């Protein structure tokens, strides 16, 4: 017997309600179907045997035991993960017998078959790909829902059409040949373009196979819309071009290596530095263009990345260019994975940091030199942050505090210097941060006097980033200054007394000297006047007019010298004579001597002071030239004008001009080599004052003498 048979008895509670049932007997088929031994279940409650928490199907079995009505049903029993077909009968009231079969395999086969049918139908209509079934002539025999929706035709319309009605390339590129060759090749894969009901063109990929359809040979075509793929291919191509442009424009060296560490590709910057073109870099390795040690180092790094499957970032390393120049690069390398997560190479990028490296080296050297310089000075130098915390200090600071630099860094000055727990009132650091201005003060301790200077430190943007404090121990200097101040006061008193004495003695000496010089000028003037008088008396004894005129000229020359000494005596001066006053007196004398009421004298002389060595020759020159104009320039009673000018020009030289508008020089007078005493004397006197002498005879006579005092 193949059916399992099991005998049961209902268990009731005190109210007469069924609560469980007892297994009283079973056949061997029960053991094989259920998997429990007979002796394990006889006399046991169903709830305990089947482990379901409550007895299975209690209400159904209780009804059979009460009414005696037979029942049967199919069910799935979770505790045993099996399907059963069960028939229940009651031999007597309160008892029932179950006869059952294991239909799990049948149930599964039936379910699988139905599921397969359902899944096929579902897949056929729900596939994203369109499905076409057609005969070998291209007539459409069946389509799925996707084909209907995609092409915009009803299913009935499509079943009345031929494939060439919707395939734009059917008669081109051998697509129809592909279909005709299916019996020989068995399957074909190709691309084409389908046209929808509204004329839209859709790129498609077609996979065609021969099948049996309703006992006839037919063609099953799986048609995939590859619009997205085509667009993606265009996008990928554009992205590739963009990436190539991007990689070509970046200064970094970017490259891709395969699992054997041969180059697959690289950007322009990398190829340029190693001396290969992009086309020729493929298949090369580091040993083809780098020194052996460098190549071994790079290979070791690459191998480490591939084996560890972990990237390395920002590795500073040397590299040699194709021209043999050694430079520095900042390199990162990451593993290159395939779609299954296998490492199939590495991607690397290197940025040339040679200039930055050199700059850092310069900064390090400058930092070293700065530290050496600051540590060599006796000044206490401390660098604070904006809160006053010490960030750096020199050796002089450690010597002053008795702490090493490491212990001072991170401390605050109010703690180190004043042993305070809080910041000092009116702390200058905050004022400097606020105003950005220099601060300086003198701080006095018990036995020290310090000059403290604080200045803001700015970055390249002008923002204050710290405070530098420079402190000098000025104790000795202050004490020395106090001594010097005391000595200075004493010296001041002594100097005042000495100055008083020296001033009095000097004044006495100057007065005596001045008196002597004035007396000398007075005597010279008197002697010159005596000489002039003698010449005047002597000239009266001669009847020859030429001799007489010669004496008068000499008398005038003596008079001009006498006037100088008279001026010096009158002004009480010892050195200089006012040229304007002197010339005016000299002109008055000569005009009075020679007459000439018909001649106008125009004097244009600046207030210039000359020493005796200049004023005497200058006066004699004027005497000679003016006397000549008064005597010879004009006819009797002829109206005329004589101009005398003296001024300082822009070059700093002095210019004397004596001019008249008379009849000019006689033709027998040579200005360059004169034969008259007067002009010879003028030339000599001009040389004496280191001057130049010019004469013009246009519209009268004009003498120009330029000299430097």
TrEMBL record:
All copies of domain PAS, residue ranges: 116-173, 239-309, 366-411
* Histidine kinase domain: residues covered: 519-709
**Which stretches are annotated as coiled coil?**
477-515
Give an example GO molecular function: kinase activity
What the entry lists under InterPro entries is as follows: HATPase_C_sf (IPR036890), HATPase_dom (IPR003594), His_kinase_dom (IPR005467), PAC (IPR001610), PAS (IPR000014), PAS-assoc_C (IPR000700), PAS-like_dom_sf (IPR035965), PAS_4 (IPR013656)
Keyword annotations of the record: Coiled coil, Kinase, Transferase
- The protein, known as: Signal transduction histidine kinase
